[in-house]
Amino acid sequence: MREYTVLAVLSVVVTLLLDRRLGVHVFRRAQYWIALAIVFAFQVLVDGWLTKLSAPIVIYSPEHFLGVRFPWDIPVEDYLFGFSMVTSTIVLWEWGKRTRGETTPVDRQVDGQSDRQVDRQSDRQSDRQPDRHFDTERGSSA
To answer: How many other CB atoms are found less than 10 A from the CB of residue 107?
Structure first.
């Protein structure tokens, strides 16, 4: 059985479901695709050196993967695992930011809000909250 192949494909499916379930939608962002291209460029260099058939450092058992290698003798399953590791990390990071209420201009654009809309919302919220200041004479907040 091709365990490495099955686990690689399963990792991609879980990652796609995680992004969808958490509602992060990293695949809609140009920043994500740029980051992924950079990661894959370095993955090709490092993984190619580790798995080259002329002098391998990492050896794969032929019965556990498809046997398809591209480029420089890199098993295609390595790209799937690389995709899953990087993407799931970014998805969980972005989800964590959202659960803490942190947003960036890119988040607001993806969510369909402009910076002006967000600024107006925050202005309205700050109008409702009482001003708290520190009374320097009494040493307490008023």
So the answer is: 17
Give the distance from CA 53 to its chain's centroid.
31
pTM of the model: 0.68
C-alpha 37, offset from chain centre: 13
Strand, coil or helix: 3? helix
Q: For residue range 35-87, list pLDDT tens digits in order.
A: 999 999 999 999 999 988 888 898 888 888 888 888 888 899 999 999 999 99
Torsion of CA 4, 5, 9, 14, to 10 degrees: -20
**Secondary structure (DSSP) of 121-136:** HHHHHHHHSPP--EET
Q: How many angstroms separate the Cα of 99 from the Cα of each of 22, 71, 119? A: 10, 40, 20
Instruction: Compute the mean pLDDT over every residue in the chain, rounded to the nearest whole number.
Output: 81
Question: Token digits for 111?
Answer: 């969510």
DSSP of 85-121, one letter per residue? HHHHHHHHHHHHHHHTT---HHHHHHTT--HHHHHHH
